[in-house]
Amino acid sequence: MTASHRRLAAAGAVAVAVALAAAACGGSEDGGSANGLEKSEIMLGTMTVADSAPVQLALSKGLFRAEGLTVKTQVIPGGAAGIPLLRSGRLDISFGNYVSLFTAGVKDPRFKPKIIAEGFNSAAKTHTVMVRGDSPYRTIKDLAGKKIAVNTKRNISTLLVRSAAKAQGVDFDDDKSFVEVPPPAMEHALKSKSVDAVMAIEPFGTQMQQSMGARMVADLSSGQTAKLPIAGYAATEKFVEKNPKTVAAFQRALVKAQGMCADRKVVQDVLPTYAKGIDAKVAAAMSFGEYPTTLDPAHLQRVSDLMRQFGYVDKPIDVKNFVATPS
Length: 327
Hints:
The protein is α/β, with parallel strands linked by helices.
């Protein structure tokens, strides 16, 4: 994407945020704040992966603070873990993969997640299947009947693996083929041989290559999953309706950070500050994805269509129902 296109995209997303801010807003549970926001302090669920670099950048550069927001973070192992925290109100907004969000929204009519910002698109080698250097397995097809570590089951990770395997004529089962392991612990799982392979999210894939000689057997951002929308930021419908100015402030700050993360060097510099065990060498070598600055339901529809194809949902999903729009 050219610099001019990025500026236009950022402007479009900011326009959405401004529209939300201008929307009529009722009183909130804490009675509002001095800066005009319904809530000036929010709790955000995030992950220690490259996908969430813009959040850390916005925190370190004071972008949230400039919008009158104090953002506190809680690290979660995957998008699925953030859903019960959103339901209970322990999180106001959470970073999470779209598969988990769409699945939860379809299966529980009482839970109405609203995506307020896109977060990350895959690119070459940002999501891979990796094995030990001495492993006999050379392709994803060789892993039929083996154990593959993923951060959580029935999410974007398993969907990516199943899609790549299907292209090779292999069907993986979410219950039988996958083992849940937090991304920072996958290297140990691979070394200890408790799993045969891992679905690696950057920067941990590069870290395993450098530290233990792990070997890639499948690039999961290829074919029908090339540049696939991976994850975004969501709140409950109730939170969005009660706090439009707060949501808009969060959007404005995040869009600025997402735009800044189009510069690879920015991501390289911020990553070691929050991803445990990741140093500058790993950050410089890791594969680099995309940080969208617009919120486009048609873009996200690719994910829901894949979910339907692999049986994650029984009926087609209209993604527009999951996207926050100005009221």
